[in-house]
Specification:
Layout (H helix, E strand, L loop, with lengths): L10 E7 L21 E8 L6 E6 L9 E10 L2 E10 L6 E3 L11 H13 L11 H21 L3
Antiparallel strand pairs: 1-2, 3-4, 4-5, 5-6
Length: 157
Amino acid sequence: MPPPKSAIPFWKMELETCPEASSIPRMASVSPGAASPDEMITELWFARPEPRAVLTEFAPRQGDFAVVAAAVALDIDGGVCRSGRVVLGGVGPQPVRVEAGALAGQPAVPDTWQAMGEHAATVIEPPDDTHGSSEYRRRLTATLVARALAEASERGT
């Protein structure tokens, strides 16, 4: 039996001992302490993306930070959701994982996606700022989650 998806690492790296490695500048963003001074990264493996995963976002101008972002993943079998995940960005100081257990057993149809979007909008406390009011971000959240779920449901078929 495969490990649960939450236990599968996003990436894995291969290290090799190399005496010259200590003279190569290190990138601070690569897990400090993951390699000793005489080791260097020789390979990186990334997990295969899920077939029904979508990231969507809204920004006023291309390249700006997203006012709201929604990342979703679905497991659908026979037109019925087995499970789903929803994570939001731009609605608080850190990403928000929305409880999506209610998707299990629901039909993979637009009404289901709309209901999950509305649910996501009710569980967040977005800030009011120069990019929009908290109510604006809630409405945007409902729309983006519903759209992302609809797009994800059409993938992998």
